[in-house]
Amino acid sequence: MRTDLNYVLDYDLWVRMAAAGAHIIHIPEFLACSRTHDQQKTTVGMPYLPEVQRLLQEYSSRLVSPP
Asked: How much is the pTM?
């Protein structure tokens, strides 16, 4: 796990898996959900965007668009 990320730890995992060639497929079953609360990190605005942009720059050479 990266210690330099605050907001997008799960996104980093998905991007690393995609960059490693993982085949991600959709399944119709309901597996999880999320909830919102006043103490969460992303209550107001989109403070995670700089981290998303940084990850995409870091991994851009290893990612390919689907056919």
From this structure: 0.67
